[in-house]
Description:
Layout: E1 5-11, H1 16-26, E2 31-38, H2 45-51, E3 56-58, H3 67-80, E4 85-88, H4 97-102, E5 107-111, H5 123-130, E6 134-141, E7 151-158, H6 165-188, E8 192-194, E9 200-202
Amino acid sequence: MGEPLKIGVLVSGSGTNLQAIIDAIADGLPVEIVHVVSSRPDAYGIERAKSAGIPVLVLNRGAYADTAAADTIIAETLKASGADYVVMAGYMRMVTDVLLDSFPNRILNLHPALLPSFVGAHAIQDAFDAGVKVTGVTVHFANGEYDQGPIIAQRAVSVREDDTVDTLEERIHEVEHEIYPQVLGWIADGRVSIDGAGKVHIKA
């Protein structure tokens, strides 16, 4: 066994995807969370990190008055912690070039729809309102365009006739909690690469 993949995790809210990664690590996922960054001091993800003994950097709205300065603090903190990759887990801030350039093609985002459909912060509601029969979850590399980075993995979620937004959201979150650790496992195993055209390839 080699060294685990070292990641920093960015959160803004309840941190359920952070918890899913913590749980997967406990079950043998070869990943180490070296630092968690929260964009909000009231995010429950902070408590999840502390319970797991993970160092936490807590920012607030004032820190983001200058987003590049905030991302400089984040980049410096994660680099000092030894992070190889940055994992956005319900992080509700657009990352700037400062962070993107510090971790090129090494920042992951999770989106609750099948990109390129239903971009933005209300993807589940938007998909439900559109009446689609299938939506899902996307894991992709972040870039300078919101929800448009190279796609790593996707998984479909059927929209049932008796679904409400809440029941659909619950099933989407269940898939998120499975697919994010899976992708991190692929990266830890060296199976993920990006070609010159920006397309992601997964080795068998």
